[in-house]
């Protein structure tokens, strides 16, 4: 028993059978099951009312594909957070207003993303809303302190304050759009977001002042996994901008939640490495488009993304998703090593992530096999 407790401590679990750990586990399972079960009725309703992406030259779908998955993901995430809040397993009163600010900002971006999915809002308007959502976090105490970033000079307050605000806005808006631009092949963003959530969750669990971040990440990870069950190729529903905005914004915001002031800059190292895939993808796409003379790189979609390049080589959406999941996981391991997370916790995280991803992908493939058998002549339903 003592060895089991010692192993749990490597994961940042103070009491393996305590209310805190069990409530985090319940938060994860609530989000997973709720999102998984909620998506089918959402998909059916979305198709009925026309919330769907129509086939075109850029999209892989051959028939209308429901694009309201982001609403189901947000619902699952929100329900799990309510469950966690009701249990109150940990003292998070000090950051309650910050948690509410994250949820409010996420809700606004989910709404704007959903409207954009249906009516195509202008890039300038989307950027404005994202910047305002970032400001919402700043005024509630969630910000990057430039003077807390290691190896950089300490600046006077008159310079540090506006620079910190600018860095925070760039961080939030940048990651929000990075996740959005990565969403082009079935299963990629859902899997990458799940990997990022799990890595950041285990990393945050190593610090006593980041308990609220652990709860939010558990809920977001569960919602991502529940969605992925329906999105592994061929997908039955996509998350749209509503879902990618939710993942990008929430992951960026949670990385600032509950951190000590002296570590607020250094704490960005892990999410920066974990999110290296979408960040590098966005960087190379924007630079490439600007080099071609495109003035508005966010408003001119093309097929120069990493997932498009991998898809061209593999000719398989499934293999493309799995490859990018593994790349994200490798980035996550590097981030955990840089943060000094114990090796048993890193190994356990990798095993847990791989098992969860295999489980949902395997269940999706099995379901497709049963559907094909049911449609075959001479087969019973």
Give an account of the 3D structure.
Keywords: Cell membrane, Membrane, Transferase, Transmembrane, Transmembrane helix. GO terms for molecular function: transferase activity. This is Undecaprenyl-phosphate N-acetylglucosaminyl 1-phosphate transferase. InterPro entries: Glycosyl_transferase_4 (IPR000715). It is a multi-pass membrane protein. The protein is mostly helical and 381 residues long. It has one domain (2-367). Helix content is 70%, strand content 1%. The chain is built from 14 helices and two strands, in the order ααββαααααααααααα. It has helices at 2-10, 19-49, 69-87, 96-119, 123-139, 157-182, 188-204, 211-231, 240-254, 269-274, 276-291, 306-314, 317-339, 343-375, and strands spanning 52-53, 65-66. Strands 1-2 form a two-stranded antiparallel ribbon. Helix 3 runs antiparallel to helix 8 (211-231) and helix 3 packs parallel to helix 9 (240-254). The radius of gyration is 20 Å and the shape is globular. The model is unreliable at 260-265 (pLDDT under 50).
Report, as a whole number of angstroms, the end-to-end distance: 49 Å
Radius of gyration, whole Å: 20 Å
Uncertain spans: 260-265
Q: Give the overall average pLDDT.
A: 86
* Secondary structure tally, helices: 14
Helix content bin? 55-70%
Organism: Deinococcus carri
Keywords: Cell membrane, Membrane, Transferase, Transmembrane, Transmembrane helix
Membrane topology: Multi-pass membrane protein
Protein name: Undecaprenyl-phosphate N-acetylglucosaminyl 1-phosphate transferase
């Amino acid at each position: 028993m003592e060895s089991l407790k010692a192993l749990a401590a490597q994961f940042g679990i103070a009491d393996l059978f305590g209310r805190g750990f069990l409530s985090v586990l319940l938060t994860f399972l609530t989000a997973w099951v709720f999102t998984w079960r909620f998506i089918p009725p959402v998909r059916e309703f979305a198709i009925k009312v026309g919330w769907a992406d129509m086939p075109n030259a850029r999209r892989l779908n051959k028939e209308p594909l429901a694009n309201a998955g982001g609403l189901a993901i947000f619902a699952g995430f929100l329900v799990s957070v309510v469950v966690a809040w009701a249990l109150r397993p940990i003292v998070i009163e000090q950051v309650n207003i910050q948690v509410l600010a994250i949820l409010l900002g996420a809700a606004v971006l989910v709404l704007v993303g959903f409207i954009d999915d249906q009516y195509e809002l202008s890039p300038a308007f989307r950027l404005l809303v994202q910047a305002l959502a970032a400001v919402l976090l700043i005024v509630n105490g969630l910000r990057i302190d430039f003077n807390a970033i290691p190896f950089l000079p300490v600046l006077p307050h008159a310079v540090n304050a506006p620079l910190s605000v600018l860095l925070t806005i760039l961080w939030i808006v940048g990651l929000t759009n990075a996740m959005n631009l990565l969403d082009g092949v079935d299963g990629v963003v859902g899997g990458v977001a799940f990997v990022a959530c799990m890595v950041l969750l285990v990393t945050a669990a190593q610090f006593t002042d980041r308990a609220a971040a652990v709860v939010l990440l558990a809920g977001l990870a569960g919602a991502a996994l529940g969605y992925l069950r329906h999105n592994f190729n061929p997908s039955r529903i996509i998350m749209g901008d509503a879902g990618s905005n939710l993942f990008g914004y929430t992951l960026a915001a949670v990385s600032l939640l509950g951190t000590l002031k002296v570590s607020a800059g250094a704490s960005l190292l892990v999410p920066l490495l974990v999110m290296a895939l979408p960040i590098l993808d966005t960087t190379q796409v924007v630079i490439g488009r600007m080099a071609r003379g495109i003035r508005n790189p966010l408003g001119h979609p093309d097929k120069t993304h990493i997932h498009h390049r991998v898809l061209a080589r593999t000719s398989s959406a499934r293999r493309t998703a799995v490859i990018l999941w593994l790349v994200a996981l490798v980035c996550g391991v590097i981030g955990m090593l840089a943060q000094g997370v114990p090796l048993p916790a890193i190994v356990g995280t990798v095993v847990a992530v791989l098992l969860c991803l295999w489980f949902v992908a395997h269940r999706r493939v099995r379901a497709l096999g049963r559907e094909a058998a049911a449609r075959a002549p001479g087969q019973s339903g």
